[in-house]
Design brief:
With about 625 residues, the chain is α+β, with helices and mostly antiparallel strands. It contains 22 helices and 20 strands.
């Protein structure tokens, strides 16, 4: 019978995994099968590692499960593997599950295919970054136009912010108002205009003067502008205030020297400085030992060189910088990449650094290699996996031995009576024969002999049935394609004598032409069920119906009668060996027939069950699975 919770999960359009407390998959819905190609049986008791491209991702999975327990939910994104080994970009959301007593019972994992969204996001991010750089440039630069003589004709907000002049104060003035007296004496404004005309552009960094007389360090680009007739019509001037950067660089340089002298020789930790944009500004021996890069190979590069391709695609380096800026610090454990491309499991602490004025000037980054510790954890996890598998095997073996032991105990207790009872009867009646012969009472002799023969016949039937049951598992199954019609007709012919005596109304409704199985055992199976129906059917108006249909990939038989039926409390007992629910002489039997039926069905990878109501009849159902049977027979 299907689990209603599992059935409802199949109606959800996105992937759902149910995990046990150790993170092993217990169930998946149909959306997971559609997305990954794995069915529920293939994922049962598997780790989430089956979806991860990196074989060393046990550590990462355990970390994510720990975070889900701690934070109540953990979302991760990255490339995952389908059954056919193709990649898809997935969003995994892990949430812990608890029962009504708040006991942790496992995890709920939602899988969303974000491949198309990720591709669109990457395109959008690239476009956004380009746009952001453009906008940031406009906000940080003073951009204005000069006429051919150097007179200011336009003004923007950036110019106002940097120089302190309003639009009204600037327009109409010569741009030399921003130059120091030393530069004016040297004729620097005229030299710059002349150079721009001759070469198309003039660019430099130097001191400039604000409206209030203070100096700022500016980056200046002066560009000559021409119309369609190649006539000079003026100049564009772009000016950036680099004073804070220059001061920050000076302070950072001084700080680096002190910092470097302190941490350069530390070997157990990678300790280095990033500037405010995330570019590496210092390097120590520990960083060289852990990551494999020399100082010359790293300084000036963006720190994302240590991140996996997945992390870079997710924008993880930039996210860490943002978090450190917003909260003061970012800390995590995760995979990082060495120079040779190999991965190591790192503990990372990224801290924002500010100068004395509270201006952000960069970050410090401390990285510790935890690979050896994680290797030990991985070995422990692998050992636990092996123990788990061994425990499951032992449990299965123990269950099998328990069943066998119970069956043997039942056999011993029941057979000790049933096999001896006919013998006692024979002996009793033979003793009476002896007595009657002595008393010359020959008239009753024939009756006693008849009863002795009946008891002996029942003993023979019981022993033959018992032998049939014990030999079922030892006999190798035969793989054959059988006509369903012929199978049913043979069984009816074998029971012809009983059918003619009882004269039931028999209906056969078969929708299946051919089935696959062992002909002898299937004939015995159907014959036992039909014999049972003949025995227990309604004495006045006996009716029996045999059906055969194909349902959900299996062949399903049913044999129905309208007889005495079975009580609800006795239904689970009918397939037990030597179990007879009626001891009436009107319903003789050995109590082995239905046990034989159950064993035959199980050997054909099927299921047998019954539906019954007292005084209204019983229907026995059984299925056989041709596909599984052919694979294992």
């Amino acid at each position: 019978m299907s689990n209603p919770i599992h059935t409802s999960l199949n109606n959800i359009p996105y992937g759902i995994l149910l995990l046990d407390t150790e993170g092993y998959i217990q169930h998946c819905n149909t959306a997971v099968t559609t997305l990954t190609g794995y069915n529920n049986a293939e994922l049962k008791d598997k780790s989430l590692k089956i979806f991860y491209p990196n074989t060393d991702d046990d550590v990462k999975i355990n970390y994510e499960l720990e975070q889900a327990r701690k934070l109540k939910q953990f979302v991760s994104e990255g490339w995952r593997l389908k059954k056919d080994k193709s990649n898809f970009w997935a969003e995994f959301t892990l949430s812990p599950c608890y029962d009504e007593k708040n006991k942790h019972t496992g995890y709920h994992c939602t899988i969303l295919d974000r491949t198309q969204k990720k591709q669109e996001e990457l395109k959008l991010r690239k476009s956004e970054e380009q746009f952001r750089h453009l906008v940031e440039g406009v906000e940080n630069y003073s951009i204005f136009m000069l006429d051919t003589e150097g007179i200011i004709v336009t003004w923007n907000e950036g110019a106002k912010r940097i120089t302190g002049y309003s639009t009204a104060e600037a327009i109409g003035k010569h741009f030399s108002i921003f130059y120091t007296s030393e530069d004016l004496k040297k004729g620097k404004p005229e030299i710059e205009l002349s150079t721009a005309v001759n070469t198309g552009k003039y660019e430099e960094e130097g001191w400039r003067v604000r409206r209030n007389g203070t100096l700022f360090w500016g980056n200046i680009v002066l560009t000559a502008l021409y119309n369609e007739e190649n006539k000079l019509i003026g100049f564009s001037k772009v000016q950036l205030d680099l004073t804070e950067r220059r001061e920050s660089e000076t302070q950072l340089r001084q700080s680096e020297e002190r910092y470097r002298s302190l941490v350069e020789q530390v070997r157990d930790y990678a300790i280095f400085i990033l500037d405010e944009k995330g570019r590496i500004a210092s390097w120590n021996e520990g960083a060289k030992r852990i990551k494999g890069y020399t100082a010359e190979e790293t300084i000036g590069k963006y720190f994302s060189i240590f991140y996996t391709d997945e992390d870079i695609m997710m924008g993880k380096p930039a996210m860490e910088l943002r978090t450190a800026r917003q909260t003061g610090k970012y800390e995590e454990e995760g995979w990082r990449k060495k120079k040779d491309g190999s991965l190591f499991w790192a503990n990372v602490v990224l801290t924002a650094i500010y100068n004395h004025d509270g201006v952000h000037i960069g970050f410090s980054k401390v990285t510790r290699d935890l690979t050896e510790r994680k290797e030990a954890e991985r070995e422990l996890h692998a050992s636990n996996d092996r123990l788990r598998q061994l425990a499951n095997e032992l449990q299965a073996t123990n269950k099998q031995l328990t069943n066998i032991n119970q069956e043997l105990e039942q056999f011993t207790s029941i057979v000790s009576h049933d096999l001896q009872e006919p013998i006692r009867t024979i002996r009793s009646f033979l003793d009476l024969i002896d007595i009657k012969i002595d008393d010359k009472q020959y008239d009753e002799l024939k009756v006693y002999i008849g009863k002795s023969l009946n008891a002996a016949a029942r003993m023979k039937e019981l022993i033959i049935s018992l032998l049939n049951y014990s030999q079922l598992s030892k006999t190798e199954l035969e793989k054959s394609t059988i006509s369903t019609e012929n199978l049913i007709n043979e069984v009816l012919q074998n029971l012809k004598g009983a059918i003619e005596t009882i004269q039931p109304e028999i209906t056969v409704d078969s929708k299946v032409e051919m089935i696959t199985g062992d002909p002898v055992q299937l004939r015995q199976l159907l014959q036992n069920l039909l014999s049972n129906a003949l025995k227990f059917t309604n004495a006045k108006h006996p009716k029996i119906k045999i059906t055969c249909i194909e349902q959900d990939g299996v062949v399903k038989f049913s044999v129905s009668d309208n007889g005495i039926g079975i009580n609800e409390d006795d239904k689970h007992k009918v397939f037990e060996i030597f179990r007879r629910l009626s001891n009436s002489k009107g319903y003789p039997g050995t109590g082995i027939g239905l046990a034989i039926c159950k064993k035959i069905v199980e050997r054909h990878k099927g299921t047998i069950w019954l539906e019954s109501e007292p005084k209204k009849g019983t229907t026995f159902y059984f299925t056989i699975n041709p596909k599984d049977y052919l694979e294992t027979a």
